[in-house]
From TrEMBL:
Database matches in Gene3D superfamilies: 3.30.70.100
Top-rank lineage group of the source organism: Bacteria
SUPFAM superfamilies, per the entry: Acylphosphatase/BLUF domain-like (SSF54975)
Name of protein: BLUF domain-containing protein
Membrane-spanning ranges: none
Record InterPro entries: Acylphosphatase-like_dom_sf (IPR036046), BLUF_domain (IPR007024)
Length: 141
């Protein structure tokens, strides 16, 4: 199992962001499922942060497509390598909209890029995991 986290800068005009992200989610849900890739995408209004996990070749293949995408720029991989187990059971969109709180966490993770076991990177991963947590099943009637 291989995991990759990148951060990028959104080029989406704010009026079109919701529609474009809908289309990204539609393409990604199908393509990632077919490739056995899970993870989470965070959008803060100015930045994207995404974690992808799966077979190394599948993750790198999808990452190559993402890196070519003109809807964002300054794509920086801040963490990648083998992991013991999958942390996300499905692919999910974590948040859409302006959040200075989430944007701050992403900025700090980017600033710390390359530091082994960086605190800010772990904070970003925790935010992704917390917000992407699958909904609990409905209570029994
Ligand atoms: C921020 C962002 C995240 C994306 N995440 C994914 C993803 O997880 N999976 C995916 O298949 N495409 C994703 N895309 C879309 C790809 O960049 C690309 O448009 C799509 O995979 C089609 O690939 P192709 O242009 O190489 O045919 C994302 C695009 C952006 C801008």
């Amino acid at each position: 199992m291989y995991s990759l986290v990148y951060v990028s800068r959104s080029l989406l005009p704010s009026g079109q962001a919701a529609a474009e992200i809908d289309s990204i989610v539609n393409v990604s849900t199908a393509r990632n499922a077919a490739a056995g890739v899970t993870g989470a995408l965070l959008y803060t209004g100015t930045r994207f942060a995404q974690l992808l996990e799966g077979e190394e070749a599948a993750v790198l293949d999808i990452m190559a497509s993402i890196a070519r995408d003109a809807r964002h720029c300054d794509v920086v991989t801040i963490d990648q390598g083998p992991v013991a187990a999958r942390r996300f059971s499905r692919w999910s969109l974590v948040y859409v909209g302006h959040s200075t709180f989430a944007a701050g966490i992403v900025e700090r993770a980017l600033a710390e890029n390359g530091e082994p076991d960086g605190y800010a990177l772990r904070n970003l991963m925790r935010l992704l995991q917390e917000l992407a947590r699958p909904l609990a099943p409905p209570p029994e009637e």
